[in-house]
Amino acid sequence: SQQGEEDPQALSIQEGENATMNCSYKTSINNLQWYRQNSGRGLVHLILIRSNEREKHSGRLRVTLDTSKKSSSLLITASRAADTASYFCATDNNNDMRFGAGTRLTVKP
Amino acid sequence: GAVVSQHPSRVICKSGTSVKIECRSLDFQATTMFWYRQFPKKSLMLMATSNEGSKATYEQGVEKDKFLINHASLTLSTLTVTSAHPEDSSFYICSARDWLGRNQETQYFGPGTRLLVL
Asked: Do B32 and A50 count as a contact with CB atoms less than 8 A apart?
């Protein structure tokens, strides 16, 4: 069964703007991961944040984790048309990984 | 990073036939692999956890006899959709962890197999 819930379900922005996607979950976790999926393709791992971390950066990506609120956010700064994809959060609890419903991001050129 | 391959990338079959999908870890050993199913515009649903040398662990609601999983070696797991029907049409994705590698917590995903049952 799914664990995470992303919002918004769909997000449309202009190139250059920032995109923020949120993920909420219900159980305890070891870590939370964000993935990207282009239409009809496999998953690409973006970033992993452990339960004892609060923020992580990777290039234009910034991920936060609030374990007290059981939520995480993914921020993509200075978005590009090539960032158009679906983004999923996945919670990992002792080798049990569950995915959220995903956010469909469209970046208009 | 670690690489996971899947074969075939897409397959079309007739209703009632069986289809085998292979998942391979190319440069690492994977004692555990995972099989997911994804419907159009939906998230990934974990179907089962494939354990090398033992029986797979299936998620609730997943038919064991319908989706046969065999983890024959440390680098290969197969998913066989038996007596496929149109409702089995979906995108199947496998993943694996490199427990001996630097990024043990990361799951590496295969490119997926698109199955269409006519």
From this structure: no
Tens of pLDDT, residues B73-99:
889 999 999 999 999 999 999 999 876
Q: Do B109 and A30 touch (CB under 8 A)?
A: no
Cα separation, B80 vs B77, whole angstroms: 10
Q: How many CB atoms lie within 10 A of CB A9?
A: 13
- DSSP codes of every residue in A38-96: -TTS-EEEEEEEETT--EEEETTEEEEEETTTTEEEEEE-S--GGG-EEEEEEEEETTE
Return the residue matching tokens 């200075």.
A78
User: What integer pLDDT is reported at residue A4 of this predicted model?
Assistant: 62
Asked if B34 reaches chain A (Cβ–Cβ under 8 Å), the answer is: yes
- Compute the distance between CA of residue A4 and CA of residue B50 in angstroms, rounded to an integer: 23
| DSSP label at residue A3 | -
**pLDDT-flagged residues of chain A (< 70):** 1-4
User: What residues in B contact A50, CB-CB < 8 Å?
Assistant: 105
